Amino acid sequence: MRTYKILFVCVHNSFRSQLAQAIASKRYGSLLSAHSAGLDATRGINPLAKSVGLAHGYDLSSHVVTDVFDLYKQGQTFDVVIAVCSKDAYERCPIFPGVHKRLHWPLIDPSAPNVKDEDREILTHQLIHELEIRLENLVNELQENR
Fold it and tell me: Is the Cα torsion angle 35, 41, 44, 46 positive or negative in sign?
């Protein structure tokens, strides 16, 4: 069975891309080799992403923050690159050579400064659900196109 190397990119690699990596690894680890990185990877992993992720069965405790440009400079290659951020951030993503599929999933960032504190947890649950659905659809598409 072929394994697809997949990279999830967001701005800080502290929330959305980390959750996407955890979900992809846990649910589809035999098909997807999941990685994540950020455009400005300067923060640690957000505690809310860790706690709500864990409540859904996704453990981020061993994850590390990675800079997408470091991966690019190292010559890393990926079959699929998915930006889980705004359109502006998506346009800043480097184009990795050899990518078969480049996607943009403009997902809400529960850690954004304009999000009210009381809304962050529910938005994180919604984000996880959205990622689960999108990943299931992607996996089905990859399996159909084998």
Answer: negative
Range of the domain at 131: 4-144
Whether the model clears a pTM of 0.90, i.e. scores above it, the answer is yes
Residue 106 identity: P
Decide: helix, strand or coil at residue 82. Answer: strand
Q: Which residue has the tokens 């996880």?
A: 128
What is the domain-level CATH number for residue 98?
Answer: 3.40.50.2300
- Quote the number of domains for the chain: 1
pLDDT (tens digit per residue) in 113-139 = 999 999 999 999 999 999 999 999 999
Give the count of alpha carbons within 13 A of 36, CB side only.
Answer: 25
